[in-house]
Amino acid sequence: MQINGAHVLVTGANRGLGRQFALSLLDRGAGKVYATARRPDLIDVPGVVPLRLDVTDPASVADAAAAAPDVKIVINNAGISTGANLVTGDLDMIRREMDTHFYGTLNVIRAFAPQLADGAILNVLSAISWLAVDGAGAYHAAKAAEWALTNNVRLELAGQRTLVTGLHLGAADTDMMAWYEGDKTAPEVIVAAALDGIEGHRPEVLADDWSRQVKAWMSEDPDVVYREAAAALSV
Question: What is the similarity comment for this entry (predicted)?
Fold first, then answer.
């Protein structure tokens, strides 16, 4: 799968990683970039095709698929972070996270899958797909579910030769993470790794040192993992 000449749709393209995806895709010669958002008037990248898309609204997703029948790569980037925990958090916020990251991603995949034979899907996941963090219980649960979705969709679409790639990252230097004072990776570095992964036909991209560390912990005892994670995050 080559980016050059490809027609690509990016969800959540009005800011952060989504905006960077749109910019980098154009830089790599994408033939057309559909930059989508719930409010397309907020998209400010010259050269893209702005398109309204609310991933939590099946009718909006169906309209977007009808408006972009030539798409061969879909980048599921749209996301939220409510800060809700599972035991004490607002259930409506927890549902919003799941509706966006799991059901929203699934809505988009189901709508576009028929036109993605020999194409590609990239789901923007997180190192938090694999590591619980106090203060992000809903985000962790939703991203873990989206990781499982990614793995299952990869199997289901293998017969039509659709590449399904999961992108894992730690903190990116975007407005969503403006509050975080630890190390953050530049959006263009994350996006470059993701697009290289698509062109390299890779099922998984670990975009930074933190995602690689968390993946390495997956075979460890949870007591060890969370002790080491707490020590690393306190530095």
Answer: Belongs to the short-chain dehydrogenases/reductases (SDR) family.
Give me the mean pLDDT over the 53-81 stretch: 98
Tell me if 185 sits within 8 A of 208, measured CB to CB. Answer: yes
What single-letter DSSP state applies at residue 218?
A: T
d(CA 128, CA 141): 9
Residue type, 140: H
pLDDT score at 224: 87
Is residue 143 flagged as an active site residue?
yes
164 strand-pairing partners: 121
Residue among 32, 34, 72, 139 flagged as catalytic: 139
Q: Among 32, 34, 103, 143, which one carries the catalytic annotation?
A: 143
pLDDT confidence of residue 1? 85
Instruction: Give kind and range of the element (H or E) at residue 39.
Output: none
In 195-212, which positions are buried (b, 16+ CB within 10 angstroms) versus exposed (e)? bebbbeebebbbbbebbe
Tell me how many helices (H) and strands (E) the chain has. 8, 7
> Is pTM, for the whole model, over 0.90?
yes
Q: Which helix (H) or strand (E) holds 178?
A: none
Mean pLDDT of the chain: 94
